[in-house]
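Human: Note token order:
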Amino acid sequence: MITFEQFTIGAGAVLLLLMLPAIYRIAVGPTALDRIVATNIIGTKTAVMLIIIGVVFERVAMFVDFALAYALLNFTGSIAASRFLHRTKDTGEAAAGIVPAKKE
């Protein structure tokens, strides 16, 4: 018979294994946006793993606070990185002398 603690540890291990494709996408990812999304996926799975750790140690309330703070930082970081890349993409094209075609 599998205990609840063994089940939660198994669920954490499965989440850890599901992070491997995202790590591959961070390393290979053809665009910076792919890398940002993969990083966000890993951050979301980490927040869920914090909840699982709280269940294992029977301190769920404390780990929920940690998970919420981590998820908020993860989301804010993803938005900041996306905005930064969007702005540098625009200035990078202007610096390279590429002028977008005018829409008339």
